[in-house]
Amino acid sequence: MGIFSILEEECMFPKASDTTFKNKLHDQHLGKTKAFEKPKPGKGKAEAHFALVHYAGTVDYNITGWLEKNKDPLNDSVVQLYQKSSNKLLALLYASHAGAEGKKLKL
After folding, report:
1. pTM of the model
2. CB 3.0–4.6 Å: which of 5, 40, 65, 104 could bond 1 by disulfide?
């Protein structure tokens, strides 16, 4: 399971926390995926919970609040813009997304 899959899974559980999310990430990826590392603490660096090795270098990530942020619904105005997009794939991806009134928006 990837990072976003684990994030989605954790958001389904009411008792999930940043700590449980971090623990699942470490259990799933630490030592098993070369691109996933423990962050190296340094002076002046913000607290980090994991690091990813990207093509441009190692990037530290702080997951504080990720669970809560991931639970935010999409703004209806943004969904309507996506549904009316000239990019057919984007419009198709959001075609069945219900609006605030609970009804499907027409393209």
Report:
1. 0.65
2. 5
